[in-house]
Design brief:
Layout: E1 3-4, E2 16-25, E3 31-33, E4 43-45, H1 47-51, E5 59-60, E6 62-70, H2 74-77, E7 82-90, H3 91-94, H4 105-117, E8 121-124, E9 136-147, H5 148-153, H6 155-158, E10 159-163, H7 165-180, H8 192-200
Antiparallel strand pairs: 1-10, 2-6, 2-10, 3-4, 3-5, 6-7, 7-9, 8-9
Length: 213
Amino acid sequence: MIYDFPDPQAPIRQGDIFQQIPRVDLDPARLLVMSDSPQREAEMIDWLKVATRMARTPALVSIRSVFAIVITQDCDAGRVEDISLCEVDRFDVVYPAGKNAKYPKGTMDVITKQARINLKWFYLPREPRIEFTVPMAADFQSVLRVPRTYLEQNIVALRLARLNQIADEHFRERLAEYFRRYPYDEWYPLDKAEFGEYRRNKPEPIQPFLWQE
């Protein structure tokens, strides 16, 4: 498919796919902070109370293993302290609206059409050799960070594959489009009558501009 399998000694590049990347999940409002005294138990407190200490604070957090793809640019991947990656999950988790698409026409429509207009994800097809037994997607909204030296020292165990040239070029552009996109209310240039039609077809309430009231 769209994957290459680089030599184990090949340097880390954008588009490299890794397994067993740690994702830390925590609730800042309910942080289980360890006490400095062995006589005291861990305390559940709000992060803002800890942040004022201006020092490292031991705490208990939840960590889970995820697939992830490198988003750090090639020119930085060999020298930065931390590598940035986007979490990779099942396509129906990253893009729930596509979970009912019927194979092959329905899935083809979602993959080709939605990939042009939905910038939040990058589609990754099945590949049993890297444990992608179902369609997957890179979630640009979930960014992780891992020390570069750790990835380099464990690259044989952690790196599964790399996007091939065609997919890598597309991935780079999609990534850039997502992070540089300009947010705006698409209905702002409509007149009052056009806005009425626009709002009629939207399930959520939409606030009109002054010239549309």
